[in-house]
Every structure is written in C-alpha cells, then in structure tokens.
Amino acid sequence: MYVCMVMLVTVDELKKMLDAKAQDLLIVDARSWHEYCYGHIPGAVNMDLFAFHWADTSDEGIERFNSSLKMLLKSAGITYDKHIIFYDDITGTLAARGLWLMHYICHEHTMVLDGGFSMWRRRGYPVEKEPTRPSPVNEEYTYRFNNDVLATYRYILERMNNHNVRIVDARSREEYYGIHVRASRGGHIPNAVNIDWEANMMHNGTMKPVEMLRSVYSSILHRDDEGNDDKEGVKEDDDNDMEIICYCQGGYRAAHAYLALKLLGMKKVRVYLGSWYEWGNRYELPVE
C-alpha cells in the first residue's frame, strides 16, 4: 500500500502563508546567486545548492561532507523549529536536493514548491530583487544526521546483488548506456534500472500526480525477487523489505527520484551522494 507523504506545496498555498506572515517559515531559493538577484520570492534566502557538489563517500569524505554541510545550513539560518520550503525554477533537482538534505539532518518540516519560481511568476505573485539577509545560526547549534537516507560506494558494493535492493539510475538513456561519458568510464552500476528523472515531471514544470509516478517506477515496484515482472506489484508486507538506492551524475537528479519515491510512500530510499562522478572514476568498482 502506498501512503502519499505531504512534501509538496503549491504556489497558492505558499502565497497564503506569506500573507498570514507565518513566523516559522523559511523559504530557500536553491538557484544560483545570479538567478536569485534577478528576481525571487519575497523573503527567500539564497542557498546555491548546485555549488555544493560532493563526490567522496569514503568515511573521511562523509565526515568532511557533514562538516561542510553544517556550515552551509548555519549560514542560511536553518534550524529545526523552522518550516522550510525549497524552490528552484520548476519542481526541479535543486529543490529536491534541498529536501533530501533536510531529511539527512532529520528535519521533519520541509517541503518543495511545486512548479517553482516559474509557476510563482505565472500566477502574477510579487517578486523582489533585493537580497534577503539570512539569520545565521549560533556555532554551537547541532544537527542530527540520518544515515538511513545516504548511500556510499561501499554500501552499494556490498548490496548491489541483494534481491531486496533496487538501484535507480536517474540519468539520461545516453549516460546509462555509456554513449554520453561524463567520468573516466561510461556505463552504469550493475543491476541498475534507468528511469530518467524528467519522467517525473509534467509539461508545466510541476510534479506528476502519484498515480502517474507509480506507472513511471513500475519497472522496479513491480519486480519480483528474481527481477521478473510481478503484476501484483509491491505489497504492504514486502514494501517494508525493499530498499531503493538512487544515483545520477552528482546526486541532484537522484534526489528528484528520491522525492518521487517518497511521494509514493516508499519507506527505504537512499541517495548515493557520490553518484557516477565517484563510481565512474573508481576503477576498482564494477561497471556495466
């Protein structure tokens, strides 16, 4: 059984929140500084998430990632008492990356603006260009990390042949088959299923409804333990056993797949932070 988790907010709902002057609301514009200054939602702070790449998921690499992430979050004023809404141009990969990061720090009150800034402007809602100064968090403030939503290359290597694990490659078909090579090696992680993240989207830049997303991910949700099609699909009992690991080139499109799967109510979903940029450049790791 699928249970839709409320992780999307419409532009109309956000406008009502702003009109009500909600005190606990923090809107984060995840686009570049240039795009943000050209125009953004009133009161939004900028956090250019595309600049926060990470491709080292060794133990030492994750420690450094956590340290860098804490500095980034504190500078943006992110605390657990805030209701945080991420957006980019559409319901895109940057906003999804923001949501995944919040789940990684165990933040329970995070949403993505469905349709993003493009839908906001389409509605004719107000836009400002003056940057909003964030309220930095005290250096002693602590965050909790949830490793259950994170995958490292070692984690995948140990489980890639486990019949309860599904691996989703959110890149393009050309990247998946090694036609478009963006690392030392082309191809994909063995046993990975290719589901391009763009299949999650409607033409107007909003997320597809749950019923449509279920069809998009049917190739993994309707597969039995031997990898054959299972017409009955995932049942409530075995849903608890299935784990899905998403990856792409740098963990952004993978975060969008993570969002889609969480909207479908899947409980065990991880993002491979290093993604193909790490896997494709580590020659000791297997490639198909």
What would the keywords be for this entry?
288 residues; alpha/beta; Oxidized Rhodanese, domain 1; 5-stranded parallel beta sheet; 12 helices; 10 strands; 12% strand; globular
Uncertain regions: pLDDT < 50 for 5+ in a row? 231-238
Principal-axes shape call: globular
Let me know the largest β-sheet.
Answer: 5 strands, parallel
Name of the level-1 CATH class of the largest domain: Alpha Beta
Report the CATH superfamily of the largest domain. Rhodanese-like domain
Return the CATH topology of the largest domain: Oxidized Rhodanese, domain 1
N-end to C-end Cα span? 33 Å
* Overall strand count: 10
Q: Which strand order do you get reading across the main beta sheet?
A: 1-5-4-2-3
Beta-strand residue percentage? 5-15%
Short description:
This is Rhodanese domain-containing protein (TST, MPST, sseA). Keywords: Repeat, Transferase. This protein has 288 residues and is an alpha/beta fold.
